[in-house]
Amino acid sequence: MHQKILLVDDREDNLLSMEAILETEGYQFVKANSGRQALKILLAEFDFALILMDVEMPNLNGFETAALIYEREKLKHIPIIFITAHTYGEENIFKGFRTGAVDYIYKPINPELLRVKVAVFIDLYKKNYQLVLQEKKLIAINKSLQNEINDRKASEEKIIELNKQLLNNIDGLEKANKELDRFAFMASHDLQEPLRKIRTFSDRLFIKYKDQLDSDGIMNINRIQSAATRMQELIKDILTFSKLSVQNESFVKADLKLLVQEVLEDLQLTVLEKKACIELGALPTLFVNPGLIKPLFFNLISNALKYSRKDQPLVIKIYPEYVHNDQSFQHSAAMNFCRIYVKDNGIGFDQQYAEQIFEMFQRLHTQTEYEGTGIGLALCKQIVEKHKGFISALSKVNEGTTFIVSLPLQQPVKEKSLNGV
Amino acid sequence: MSQRNRSILLADDDPEDLELLEEAILSIEPGAIVKHFYNGREVIDFLRECSDSELPCLIILDYNMPQMTGAELLTSLGDDNRYKTIPKMVLSTSNAEAHIKLCLKNGATDYFVKPFDMKELQKLAGKMLSVCNL
């Protein structure tokens, strides 16, 4: 980049000689032969590194021109070297109204001195130019930093806002869930009332009029009765399910083997009927809610009893396996689990349904094939989750099903819920 | 046989349940006099007007009734010494432990859940009648 220098002199030969002296330095020259022409040039071009100006000029002398130049804000930074023949202190005249990058060269011009002085100013200009560039860069960096900070602040605020929303949502969901449970409880409770009437009155109808009914009439009453019985089962299961979410009993140390034995006693009749062989392993003593663990195993074992194969004796194995620091679960490393297997050699099911079976009202069989409400395993899942555990199923058609209940060996310290409920 | 020993007082806001229960009672004791009331207030008003010899030999009451629950009715009955010796049975849809406990605490002789067929209802009626000499 060539620095631009404005040369101002009313004599062409002076202009040429200045140009000749400085020409080797690689500057770009713009020449003006009067103060007015200089001002005219400066109207269109502001990017001069230096002005070399003769003081003695007709009409507008060098000082007057300089005064006019420096009136303009855009030009104030351009240094001026005055070329003068006098030595009686002209410099002081100009200094009177202007201090700054102003210097003097006395005639006759010493070429070396001119070159050095010009070089000093050009160097200053270059440095200044660099500084301006750097400043611009710094300002830009500053601005982008400020933007970044603003962005970050904004996103922080957004996160806080989103967090708040999330907490509100959780709160709302919890409330909705509770409402739903209460609703399920009330609904199923109130449904019992008319259902009892249906059953009792159809029973009364049957007792009173059975002699007058033909076989078709009796069959129809039986159908009413069996449909009503089935509905009663459903209501009973929904009630159990909703009570489970409403109640919050405390946990105690309990021998799971004893609890399962109690369940097996309740199921004794079915076990005998199915001629099932049950192998119960050494289950651990864990911190559990016995009121929930019993229905859990009741459902799992009932399931095994229900879905047995007709062509081979049913064997149900219930046994534990201890898992330490199992990382496959997204829990803290300090959490140790006990897996309890409930394994049967029944009809099994396709593994693709292994998740679906734990959903409410999900059934893989029709009511005529196997009776059921589709609530039992959903109940199991909820019970296990209340114990901060997991439940899963492995199954193969015609080979049997294994339910795996993973329960933590230590119950985590209860966290206080958000709303203190 | 005095009047008191023959009358049975039934309190339930559901007229159908009253009808079914009366039928079950009469199938066991055809001579019983069954009186229907639809809430606890009516029961208290009626009993207050009774002379000692007119008091019923058995009170069977529902839990969920308008104005006054079965448990509250039991408390009111417990306040009057004249009713102390009358057996009071609760027959309710609810099998909630809290309801059962409260009723027994408030002076119920026994608590039963309404059954789903006539045979069971008759069995229950028999059980309830067995505590009073009709």
Quaternary status: heterodimer
CATH superfamily of the domain at 250-408 in chain A: Histidine kinase-like ATPase, C-terminal domain
The coarse silhouette of chain A is rod-shaped
Distance between the termini of chain A: 77 Å
Task: Please tell me about this protein's structure.
The complex is a heterodimer of chains A (421) and B (134). Chain A has 421 residues and is of the alpha/beta class. Among the domains of chain A are: 4-109, 3-Layer(aba) Sandwich (Rossmann fold), CATH 3.40.50.2300; 250-408, Heat Shock Protein 90, CATH 3.30.565.10. Chain A has 10 helices and 12 strands. Chain B is α/β, with parallel strands linked by helices. Helices cover 40% and strands 17% of the residues of chain B. In chain B, helix 4 (97-105) links the parallel strand 4 (88-92) and strand 5 (110-113). Classes of the chains: A alpha/beta (421), B alpha/beta (134).
